[in-house]
Amino acid sequence: MKLMIQGTGSSVGKSLLVAGFCRLLKNEGVNVAPYKSQNMALNAWVTNEGLEMGRAQAVQAEAAGIAPHVDMNPILLKPNRSLGAQVIVEGRAKGHYPALEYEWMKPGLKQVAKRSFDRLASRYDAIVIEGAGSPAEINLRKNDLVNMGFAEMVDAPVILVADIDRGGVFAQLVGTMVLLSPEEQSRVKGYIINKFRGDQTLLMPGLEMVKPYLSIPCLGVVPYMEDLLIDDEDSVTSRIDPKVKEVGLPAVGVVQYPHASNLSDFTPLEMEDNITLHYVKTPAEIASMDALILPGSKHTLHDLNWLKETGCADALYKASKGDLPILGVCGGYQILGTQLEDPSGIEGEATCEAGLGLLSVRTRMESLKTTQKSNLIWKDDRLLGYEIHQGVTNPIFENNYWMKNEAGDCLGIKEARVMGTYLHGLFENENFRAWFLEEMGAQSGDWAYQSKKEESYNRWALHLETNLDWPRIREILDESGTL
């Protein structure tokens, strides 16, 4: 069985719907897996095999109750301002390519996508497939490998999702269907209106009025969930307001430079009731925080210069003198150091830049990319996570180790209250999260991250089952045939 979720545009909620459908099917006892042939995102995940894939498919796999595997996302594009995107195929980086050159690669990549899907189909009874952007991007239809082109390749029925929160929902739906070919239109079995706010009785007349223009049925209207704590692709979720600092609660500021990546690292902090989490972009916002985090970066040198040009670097320096905890993760760790070298032009032109100078480390960019699960030693304790970085960072002073792997290699240092590490997934470790909050004068709540995530998946699945015509969706899935 297979079912494809396509959208009228980007960020309409396809990723979360796939996760919810996977959890619903898992709860019914179906052996289900998610799939997305091509993902463009700055949030990445490392599999148990040390291969890189999109974070969204890792979340969907978790909702399905299975281990993430690179076959669930065989092609990952990580945008890079100066070079187009880094292309990762079957978990391994192949290089940086401009958009036009990547288009030339697509015919060969279609076979990669089909091969991965076939391997999944041999192991699972059902696959829920996620599209990308909109199938109505007709200028890209010739080499499409992620929307209708892929649906045709695997003969999958399609459900179309529209986002009412951004307005013009009926125009989204009708316009999309008009631009599809008759064969493509016949694949679409129904539509879902997502992110609805307010009284649905006000929407009902519209559902009737649009029927002459749409031959497909409405399969449900999904109300917006304000407190849903499930990672959604790589954007900062709307539930976080960087301008608001709740009175009486310490505030953690994540510095959102232009190429900030793996922001899902901080989802566990969003779940904490004793702090507020904010994404900050200005010196004034940085100055108002009680702790600061520099996240990963897909273009570290550019983001370093952005910090300097905007005055945020000076604000971070002042914050360090004010004895605030400052943590750099991956690219943020590199930025906090004294020097970043890129002699081979890995991120663009060959260069050597002075870092912020808040940690005594030097980084050298190298062509070999590190992608692996990690088990670090920290304060006589263990931290689990993963590494994704294109560079080697060395302490200037020997034995200045704050975190190290089992081989004794340094993967993080701490000087006064400034610290840096290469470990992603840091705050999923209960011991580290409690320690970090204590450092900033707060306490961690009495909850476990994994159980909180399970609760979110189940709440989201129940929300979908309540508001969608789930029996009809199951019929569409059943009618798709065996894999």
Describe the structure.
It is built from 15 helices and 27 strands. The model is unreliable at 235-245 (pLDDT under 50). The longest helix is centred in the N-terminal third of the chain and has 23 residues, at 99-121. The chain folds into two domains: 2-230 and 454-479, 3-Layer(aba) Sandwich (Rossmann fold); 251-439, Class I glutamine amidotransferase (GATase) domain (Rossmann fold, 3-Layer(aba) Sandwich). The strands form seven sheets. The protein has a seven-stranded mixed β-sheet with strand order 15-13-16-18-27-26-25. Strands 2-9-1-10-11-12 form a six-stranded parallel β-sheet, with helices on both faces. Strands 3-6-7-8 form a four-stranded mixed β-sheet, with helices on one face.
Features:
6-stranded parallel sheet; Rossmann fold; alpha/beta; 483 residues
Count of helical regions = 15
Structural class: alpha/beta
Per CATH, what is the topology of the largest domain? Rossmann fold
Any idea what the shape is? Answer: globular
How many strands in all?
27
Note the beta-strand portion: 25-35%
Q: What does the main sheet amount to?
A: 7 strands, mixed
Widest sheet, order of strands? 15-13-16-18-27-26-25
